[in-house]
Amino acid sequence: MLEGNRVSRISVRGFAVASATAVTTVGAVVGVASGSTAQPSNEAEATAGDATLLADIPAGQQAQVQTASLTQQAQTQAIAADNAAQKSAEEAARKQAAEDAVAKQKDAQAAKEKAEQEAKEREEAKKAASRSATRDASSFATQASYSVSQIQAMARQMVPSGQFQCFSNIVDHESSWNYKATNASSGAYGLFQALPASKYSSAGADWQTNPATQIKWGLNYMNGRYGSPCEAWSFWQANSWY
């Protein structure tokens, strides 16, 4: 009961501030203020058991109670805002991480495809260079006989420079650059020990007497079957034949 004004039972979930002229609700007001003849609602009666009346609190403590109530509400709101902000930040971080992962996957795939394309282009260029002889067999004048150095000089002019050493390695092992070398047991013949020897005829009819024709056939064989003389040499090293 406040002096000069009659205060009816004011029930709040929390605390209510009663003045001479009005009631300021800090919690949820479920009753009525002074000067009113209205009766408390059913809700007010139902919650009266767990409500606190500001009028029941000593006057000296009412300000502290109001401050504590407001502080508690502010803290609750701040915690709720922090939780919402944290949840929003976590969701944004997850979304960004997913987008970054997709972007990295696309970049990796693009890099892989680029590397594969470059490797393919290098291989095609390598094979094209290997197949491109600098001089054809028919451009060499026919001689009665040829020395090893002369045959090697022919080969250097017919075989691409990057493939010559591999080409030479095979000829070294097969015939030691003897264009008339014959295997007595099998009949394999010439620089590349072709079997049957007549295979050389696909490069020219003078295959028995012209080492340039045999070189042309050998280069075509290595390119056609293995891709290049160096790939043929790799096979030879692994199998001791080609």
3D structure, described in words:
With about 240 residues, this protein is mostly helical. The chain has six helices and four strands. The protein has a two-stranded antiparallel ribbon. A two-stranded antiparallel ribbon has the order 2-3. The longest helix has about 70 residues, at about 60-130. The relative contact order is 0.07.
Topology of this structure?
Elements: E1 12-13, E2 16-18, E3 23-25, E4 28-29, H1 42-47, H2 59-131, H3 148-158, H4 161-175, H5 211-226, H6 229-239
Antiparallel strand pairs: 1-4, 2-3
Q: How much is the average pLDDT? A: 78
Q: How do the strands of the widest beta sheet line up side by side?
A: 1-4
Count helical runs. Answer: 6
Strand fraction band? under 5%
